[in-house]
Specification:
With 466 residues, the chain is of the alpha/beta class. The protein contains 15 helices and 16 strands. It has a seven-stranded mixed beta sheet with strand order 4-12-11-10-9-5-6, with helices on both faces. Strands 13-16-15 form a three-stranded antiparallel beta sheet, with helices on one face. The chain starts with 14 loop residues before the first helix and ends in a 16-residue tail after the last helix.
Length: 466
Amino acid sequence: MSHWPLTRDDISRPAYRSLAQGIAAAIDSGSLRPGDRLPPHRDLAWRLGLSVQTVSRAYEELIRADLISGEVGRGSFVKSGPRETVEVPWFRAATDRPPIDLSMMTPVCLPGIAQAWRDSMQRIAGNLPDPVIHSFRPRQTMSLYGGMAAGWLARCGMVVPAQRILITNGCTPAQMVALMSVAQPGDEIATESSTCHTLKPTLRHLHLRMRGIPGDERGMCPEALAAAARAPGSKLRAVFLLPSGAGPFARIVDRERREELAIAASESGLVIIESDVLGPVAPRRPPPVSSFAPERSLYFTGLSKCLSPGLRLGFLAMPEYLAERVLNRHLSLSWMATPMIAEIAADWVATGVADRLLAAQRSELAARNRLAQRLLAGRSKGFPHGLHRWLPLPPGTEEHGLIRAALARDVALAPGSGFAVTDYAPALRVCLGGASSRDLEHALTVISALLPDSNGVWPGAGPEPV
């Protein structure tokens, strides 16, 4: 629901959360604009058949989310200023039991991760390199940790000399730097029909446009990419790829298609920007697309999705002709990666902690993917070690209706529409890493109960959940 004003039909249980969602969606869609005054608590309560306390709690949630402000004697107003995204589908309150979160793609919270951090900091404390504390020189950080970065990239199938690797504070800065380095405002970036949610606001910020390229079950179609690049007036400058399981479809593209995409990009004069945020989570996967055309590729990976969310370190491999431009863009954006995080990462790699945590992630993710396949009756798509599953829904399904139904049962999901670039079929992204094993099993059981049966009949009297 992104309209305003809301009606009684828009409210579901729990009512305060549903009301907060509705107002947030109206702000996000522009139905409510910065500076608009919201109705007084008592007036809105009467209009929607709610208690004044329920409306007050919803307004408090929106104030915590920095979407509205309350001014004594004047009322509640939509906050002004640019807003790229709104954190939906739920808002967490300090006094409220948060939902089981299957909407965010995170690694499994393994019991050994916290101890790994503690042990590493104790080891480092006794032998901390001076540049970690005092250096402002980006090249010094690169020289200290370039070898570690090159070794990690080799695990991912990219053999790159240390001097052609930029170390960043995670994959998001690497993605921004890559895009800034290859395109100018008004240019277009080719993507699959659905892509990572962070790409859209990044392209808007850089005044770049997105062009969805048709694909099939194997991924983006190379012929369609080449045709889009050849089209009269085309402003395609690069192709953005997620071929190793991190994209919405949780698909690992086969080797032959990867080679074909590299050839199509090369022959069309396009730069390849390859996002591999999962890194070596999937064992025995094909080499990166970038490895087939390294002279025109920007490839990045990181550690936060495969080892620990707090280990926000990224590695961006760059071709020689773009190296100076990439380094300068990074200087203006972030200056340098945080040396202390790089030092902890280097310690984990050197002591074997990274290997042990990676193996444990693979084992646990394999078990969780098997569980999802069983409880969702084989309806979801993905690969054995993925951090999420892609759950297609019957044609015509209203995604947000199903998401509201799940949220009313304390399960948070991500709508497929949030990743769509072109026309899409309704779906949900179901993430497997963020919840405990027990909570995940419960949440998957809830989702399964909300889905239609094998004959396409939805639970309850209606044709689909409300």
